[in-house]
Amino acid sequence: MSEENVSNDPNKKRTRKKRKNFLANAKKYAKKGQMGRGTKIPEELYQYFVGILDAMKQGIEDKEERHALVNNVLERTKGEEHNVVGNQLGCRVIELLLPFASAEDLERFMEVLSPDLRKLCADNFTSHVVETLLRVACERATEHLQTGDDTTSDTEEEVPKKKVKKEPKKESKYEKDHIQKCHEFTIKISKYALNNLEEFVWDQYANHILRSALKCLSGITLLPGEKPKVNIFKQTVNDGKGIPPHTTKMTYKTVPDEFKAIVKDFVTRLSAWPQFKDLPYQNITSGLLQVMLYAIKNVDKNATKDLLRKLLDESFAPEDWVGNGDDDKKDVKDGDCEGNMNQGSLPPVFDSEAAVRLLEAALFVSKKKTYTQIYARCFINRLGQLASMPMLNYTVQRLIDNCDVKEEFEPMFEELSDKLGALLACGNTGVLVALAKACLRLKAKQAQYLNSLEAALKCTTPEHQKYFSVLCLRLLPADRVDLTTLDKEYFINVHGSVILQCILDFQRPAKAVNSLLELTTDQLMIVFCDAKGCHVADALCKGQYVGVKARDKLIWRLKVCAVF
């Protein structure tokens, strides 16, 4: 990191490209006399859809009003379904309304669009409607199968437990006939996609229908890192946080065995392709394989293992690949980044970002034995090199996040422990977060992590040790921080805050606790009043190994600032 990679100025924010406003663009097209892209629809209908989008954007809280709006809009599309879904604006409106459609309206769209699936799946507008139809049909077909607990398949071979009384299945709000039609439509679309696999894989729009089919058939709710889509009606999603980046859990819905069998067929067909080994190296096919890995994980453990083994043997690190043998001799010094790295010793998977993302998905779904094989073939003796590279440090984070065996984590830590200074210099601080979380999760190497971090922050001397917590929050070494201005507002690194929170939950957090309590009241208030620093106060008060006296001391220190 250069002097404060992210500036010390708290008001300086990363500029983001302004997102295009779909509704504003639609109005602009109408003024020019252009009724959107795609198929032509009458101007009156186009203006009607603009008004509907406007009303939806304002938010319709009343359920009866929302129900009436959905019914009225879908009624207007009768006889014009193909024209409407082929138009940019019409497609958007229908896509938003279908999840709220009545059984009759949903069945009408299924019936009207089914004969032209080949053309619709490859179109840049109608393909979105087909995806939404598939998703809504699958939700309605499986809604009655869900209980209070969603099933997860991330656990290792489960230990037999005492039988727990399951919550009763949900009562469906739809008639059996509608549920059966949704079930049949889900299977029809999925099998159609499977039968046209060779063509759909390479089409940028149809490829996403393959992905949606796999997600629906396997019961995937959200992919790792994926956020739930909130409908424009401003209806809140139940647990609207999505899945955070550092997670090793996924939740699946209950789906019928008939759905799972089709997922197996997808895997069997695709893995039998002669060009399978090249699929991880293209973005479009890598994305499909990632979804396939998450899908098969919930369907068949043996098929998951076979697919991972095939990827490892044929694509990630093929048997005929030979490195130059000097991986363990490479040393990453402070300040060394990708410019000085020789990639000749790295397996082929690390040459392509698309393949690297697939490797991360493989780490996520792999069980102990397969995980060990991936680690041994792709990562061992290369972690220092990989962790210092802009793209590949994220893969090292995923490797550490998914490590569940203490004995396996220890050599990883040893390989990286003397590279923390270089990682700070490169700005790849996410690796430090992953290490801290793993030390906490596996209860291993906690003291060594503290010592290595102290050395990287250059605060091992007695006069600097009291500033450990501040340097950790800023993730800057002592010689790059003005220690006389800690009572003035400064930038707190979000990774630094997370690391300090982990350290406060270590079995021996005294070093971090003492360094916080040695700060003056004004200096503490700067930390605790910051959006990222305030969580440190929570960790200090909740830490199971933080002493009562330390908490009392904190309260007395802050008492003077309290307003009653």
UniProtKB/TrEMBL annotation:
Listed GO molecular functions?
A: RNA binding
- What GO biological process, any one, is recorded here? endonucleolytic cleavage in 5'-ETS of tricistronic rRNA transcript (SSU-rRNA, 5.8S rRNA, LSU-rRNA)
Keyword Ribosomal protein tagged: no
Taking the record's annotation, the residue ranges forming a coiled coil are none
This protein's GO CC annotations: 90S preribosome; nucleolus; preribosome, small subunit precursor
Q: Which SUPFAM superfamilies match?
A: ARM repeat (SSF48371)
| SMART domains reported for this sequence | Pumilio (SM00025)
Q: Which InterPro entries match?
A: ARM-like, ARM-type_fold, NOP9, Pumilio_RNA-bd_rpt
- Enumerate the UniProt keywords alphabetically: Repeat
A Pfam family this chain is assigned to: PUF_NOP9
Q: What is this protein called?
A: Nucleolar protein 9
Give the species this sequence originates from: Mythimna separata (Oriental armyworm)
